[in-house]
Amino acid sequence: MPETYRVAIIGSGPAGLSAAARAAALGLSHVLLEKTDHLSDTIYKYQKGKHVMATPSNLVLRSDCDFDAGKREVILGKWDEQTAGYKVNVKYHAEAKAIRGTGPAIPGSVHTIVMRGRDGSKTTKEIQRHQPPYEIELTNGEKVMAENVVLAIGTQGNPNRMRCPGADLPHVQYQLDDPTEYVDEHIVIVGTGDAGIENARGLAEDPAQRNTVSILNRSTDFPTAKDANVKALQADHDSGKLMIRLESETKEIEPGFITLTTRDGEIRIPCDRIIARIGSAPPRMFVEECGIEFASEDRNAFPKLSPVFESTTPGIFVIGALAGYPLIKHCMNQGYDVIEFINGNTELKPADEPIMVAKFKDLPAGRSTEDWLEFLRANVSILNGMNPLQMREFMLESEAKFFRKGEVIFERNAPGNSLFGIASGSVAVEVNPEDPSITIPIECGSIFGEVGLISGRRRGATIRAAEDTIVVEISRLAALKLQSQVPTAKKAIERISTERQLLQMFGSGLKSDDIREVVDTSEIVRVPAGEAILKEGDEGNDIYVVRVGSMIVEKDIGGKPVFLSYLPAGSYVGEMALLDGGKRTATVKAAIKSEVIKINGDAFKQVLDKHPKLLERARRDMKSRREVNSFIESQKHSFGGAVDLYSKTAQFLIDNGIGEATDVLLIDETLCVGCDNCEKACADSHEGLSRLDREAGTTYAHLHVPTSCRHCEHPHCMADCPPNAIKRGADGEVFIDEKCIGCGNCQRNCPYGVIRLDAKPPPKPSLLSWLLFGRGPGPGEAPYKWRKKKAEEAGVEQAKLAIKCDMCSGIEGGPACVRACPTGAAIRVAPEKFLTFTKLVQEDAD
After folding, report:
1. Cβ contacts of residue 204 below 8 Å, gap of 6+?
2. Could you report the per-residue pLDDT of 233-264, keeping only the tens digit for each?
3. 646-760+799-845: what fold?
4. DSSP string spanning 554-601?
5. Which sequence spans correspond to the domains of the chain?
């Protein structure tokens, strides 16, 4: 009969290796099972020469194995030495095939699992849990017995695959071993987690290899990557070593080329090799057959675990990436801790305990850290899918706060893009700014602040605690990371935000129950720039709500598309076919990369039939659209004249940023006399630094779009601001505060060239000082030479500031450029007024 070990550890990555070293140091009988012929296969497969980071920096390392930031080869060499020094019992070429309890069956522990075939078929299988000891069957037929099993197998062996035409071509790969093997290739990296960033940088590091490297990021944020990696990637982009393609996704792969959907439409670029680093999923079948339950049916869900890493099968513990904790330092701490727990040390607290205690010190009730984590996880719906280990990591980037009854959590129009979850109590939303007594309740377990998270816009209402309330405030990056790692959280946030957007848009006394079926049958659709959601002449009665981005409506006249209207976020379209039947009367397509809520027409028709006020509003909206259609139809004879000019002007303005703007400066050149008062007023309002270049920019007909900030709905400049110096103000303005460090990321990320870096000037002498004593450069913007000279004299030659329009926030009377224009040529346009100014061009043409 084989020896029964006190503990068998499966997998020798950082978590398993640390566990084995602790077992050896304590003198526990143990075995470390590794399927390859070397330790720590995950680190071993890192690209050669990779610099491995030791984060979080404020977390103490608790392990018998050393770990400091350094080269892959150095770290592996040190671990080999220490493993030998501790006399860890390692069994190589030992891949686990199955784990079975050999003790009595546990009453009531039958577990049903779903087995999925490659063809999409599903079958079920019942698993009966048994008491330990456990028999571990290896693929070579050998059996290992153990009282406890620690699963530290990670997820790297089960990578997520690309899903697009051409994804199965031979030049698509999911691993990079040695970046020096590739020379003179066009290489595209898909995925901007740490692995993708490090692969891209490794391939672009040596210019002698002559690789052209691009890395795709489907958004503008990097929620799953370490900050140091993001900064290093940006530095490589700035120096021309590689290219970061933001808001880009793969549409199609073909030999020698890849087609991408971007914010502005499709592009096709050369591509010899694709390296996809888009994450991985737990080896679910193997784990479930051990009797271990998962948090949900989603492929990317993680096992259910206790605070001491024990799974739903007694005596089987899960640590490391398989537990949802991928960072090396976390994994090593878990390896140490799990062996201490198995050895009877029930008093041991996790290494991050001091950080957690500080997080909860201002909350009432005096719960322990474990109790608080479970309290928050259980009571906030979007956190239900997390296990205790994920909760600890999540709280490192979030804050728990207590508000007494009546306290304001945030004010209407306040800047902010964080999300809040209600763990106890409730909040009241003040929906009418004129009458704070009119409120809508949000109950315990739900969320609020999702509008700021999704759009980045200012808060839409004042929210107070309706009773003593505990909330979790989740930063934007933490919320994005939560959605990427916990599928149930993403679904919950999308459902709640959809319901609230529909209730806010349609109003008419609707309640959640009234639109439950509409929400249940709706879906969020991401629409690339230029792609149509409705096509003129098509059948269909679905309604589309613009969630993010904007749409343009066109009608075919004389074989050419003629612009009808512009739909910013918050608009809806499609009601004409629903109410009156018939085919679609116009084409609706994305002005920029957008998101829409697709609503089932039949479900929405039932709501209309039950709510006459809503039906009346929909008919008013339909009548307004028909009047526009009729007007355009009546002008067929003038196509190529005023109608053509109207259409082209509208398209010009959309192409120049109004498709994502919340406020854009336009200049009517029939009125502009070139006095430059607008620029001078801007400079005088901003310490001599003008935010406006009147002459720069583009013109169509007599509408000029100068170089000035659009205050985008989703500001590109906010995407990677290390000190978080870029914010949205109370009036929707995007501004840069005093925390700016002059890194230039905002300047690089802005697609409209409206941000510049400038020497931080000393205070400019007053106009009176200039008149009387000749001090300073005089009125208007201080010339660059003067600013640079004064900065050098002050010893701050390298001090730079990012300069952009802030809509004269805090200055009485609003934007100085508009106030200073003597002829009224300068106008600021919000999306809802866009068509008004487009029609002015047409009227002038008439």
Report:
1. 211, 213, 236, 241, 242
2. 988 988 889 999 988 999 999 999 999 988 77
3. Alpha-Beta Plaits (3.30.70)
4. EEEETTEEEEEEEEETT-EE-HHHHHH-SS--SEEEESSSEEEEEE-H
5. 4-157+281-351, 172-276, 356-495, 516-634, 646-760+799-845
**Tokens 């290494």 sit on residue:** 351
Cis, bond preceding 751 (omega within 30 deg of 0): no
- At 260-269, the pLDDT tens digits run 988 778 899 9
**Ramachandran angles phi, psi of 382, nearest 5°:** -70, -10
Domains 4-157+281-351 and 172-276 share a fold: yes
Candidates 3.20.20.140, 3.50.50.60, 3.40.640.10, 3.20.20.60; correct CATH number of 4-157+281-351? 3.50.50.60
Rounded CA-CA distance 335/79 in Å is 14
Q: What are 356-400's pLDDT values in tens digits?
A: 999 999 999 789 998 999 999 999 999 988 888 788 888 988 999
- The pLDDT score that the predictor gives to residue 797 is 47
Contact yes or no for 564/554 (Cβ under 8 A): yes
Residues with Cβ within 8 Å of 748's Cβ and at least 6 positions away in sequence, in order, are 234, 237, 238
Give 161-173 as a DSSP string: PP-STTTTSTTEE
Half-sphere exposure of 791 (CA within 13 A, CB side): 17
Contact 226, 329 (CB under 8 A): no
| The CATH homologous superfamily of the domain defined by 356-495 | Jelly Rolls (2.60.120.10)
CA distance 732 to 415: 8
* HSE-CB of 234 using CA atoms within 13 angstroms: 22
* pLDDT over 80 (residue 448): yes
| Alpha-carbon span 601 to 544, nearest angstrom | 9
Tell me how many degrees the CA angle 775-777-781 measures, rounded to the nearest 5. Answer: 140
600 closest CA partner among 551, 540, 552: 540
> What is the spatial distance between Cα 484 and Cα 597, in angstroms, rounded to a whole number?
20
| Core vs surface per residue 358-367: b (16+ CB within 10 A) or e | ebbeebeeee
Least confident span in 57-61, 551-555, 687-691? 687-691
The dihedral through the CA atoms of 72, 73, 76, 82 has a sign that is: negative
Q: Which residue has the tokens 């009548």?
A: 623
Distances in whole angstroms, Cα of residue 86 to Cα of each of 14, 151, 707 = 15, 21, 65
Ranges of beta strands (E only) in 272-424 are 273-276, 316-318, 398-403, 408-410, 419-424
Mean pLDDT of the chain: 84
